[in-house]
Design brief:
The protein is built from eleven helices and 20 strands. It is of the alpha+beta class and 357 residues long. Helix 8 crosses helix 9.
């Protein structure tokens, strides 16, 4: 966790007149610690930072000098660790994030600690996570490079008679051979009429000449994710496909050219949506333009028609316009972009021109 993040959390504590911040969301905890686990809690007061876990992770955390310097390690055995810390540190008011804590957990904490005042503060850590550090950008770029390399190696496997499932197997095999920790989400391989479904489930459908094939995938590396989509055509595309593909690509390129810090998220969505509208295709664009990517595959900011979030320098977002036509198929193209104060930077290197096999 950077000193800047600590300072921001402490400022929130001061402005809310609270004694501590309690964080239990696994993604937020990973952001603060870079330590993956199934049970890890963070309590940050105005003077101290506590890392709460059980015996499973004790030795591994103790080997992490950075964590031992930053946090006081508290091992849960029997009884309430929080009760002990609240009492010893004289903590009477705690901020929790309602976006991650369930209503049941919130009610249970209030019942268990009746003398402590719990207050909801949305996006306590998630707000910090929206702008990526240089190290986080390297992690995302590394995950993206693996995904792109894997796609290039998989394209020769796409031919008539192979199934959507076969293509997914070939692609995901290459993910791990190329160094991925895991897939970022369930890989989408949608061919022919299945391409009309934005998040089609992989099936045993056999690829045939004349098919468009949407491939939407990503990998996780070091706790950070990548996301890329390319639409492949098998055979010789007709004029209608070429026209629609170029319309989707133009919408993506226009949004990539215009996106920058200071814009409202929904205005970026409108740039791509209006581009498709000029081609008479906006009615086939049925999802948001994009989303933030980092520790989670979908995180703030969200580029959709209702989002009022202001884009900031250092955010990483996807730009992924698409059209989906029942009985015909679909086209989606997706790049990842680092938002800049002037020109933003597309970090996806795989070509976005029409791919024909």
């Amino acid at each position: 966790m950077s000193p800047t993040s600590f300072n921001k959390l402490h400022k929130i504590l001061g402005s809310r007149s609270a004694d501590a911040v309690f964080i239990d969301d696994p993604n937020d905890v990973f952001y603060l610690t870079r330590f993956p686990s199934t049970y890890l809690l963070v309590l940050i007061s105005k003077k101290k930072k506590f890392l709460i876990t059980d015996m499973r992770y004790k030795l591994e955390i103790e080997r992490r000098g950075d964590l031992m310097r930053e946090f006081e390690l508290v091992i849960r055995t029997h009884g309430s660790v929080l009760e002990k810390l609240f009492r010893e540190e004289k903590i009477a008011s705690v901020l929790v994030d309602p976006e991650s804590m369930t209503l049941h957990s919130f009610d249970e904490m209030k019942k268990k600690f009746p003398k402590v005042r719990f207050s909801a503060e949305a996006g306590l850590v998630k707000g910090l996570r929206t702008v990526k550090s240089a190290d986080e950008m390297r992690c995302v770029s590394g995950a993206l490079a693996i995904a792109e390399k894997s796609l290039a190696e998989t394209l020769p496997c796409i031919k008539e008679g192979v199934s959507e499932r076969d293509i997914r197997i070939e692609l995901e095999y290459r993910f791990f051979r190329n160094g991925a920790d895991k897939t970022a989400f369930d890989t989408i391989i949608a061919s022919g009429p299945n391409a009309a479904v934005p998040h089609s489930h992989v099936s045993d459908r056999l690829i045939a000449a004349g098919d468009m094939i949407i491939m939407d995938f990503g990998v996780s590396l070091g706790g950070y994710n990548s996301d890329i989509t390319r639409t492949i055509f098998l055979g010789q595309p007709d004029g209608l496909y070429k026209k629609r593909y170029n319309a989707v690509r133009d919408a993506m390129l226009l949004a990539e050219d215009k996106i920058r810090a200071g814009l409202v998220s929904r205005d970026v969505d409108a740039i791509a949506r209006n581009s498709l509208k000029r081609r008479g295709l906006d009615g086939y664009f049925t999802h948001s333009l994009g989303h933030g990517v980092g520790i989670q595959i979908h995180e703030r900011p969200y580029l959709n028609p209702s989002s009022r979030e202001i884009l900031r320098k250092g955010m990483i977002v996807t730009i992924e316009p698409g059209i989906y036509v029942k009985g015909w198929g679909g086209i989606r193209i997706e790049d990842m972009v680092v938002v800049g104060s002037g020109n933003s930077r597309v970090i996806t290197r795989f070509p976005n021109e029409m791919i024909v096999i």
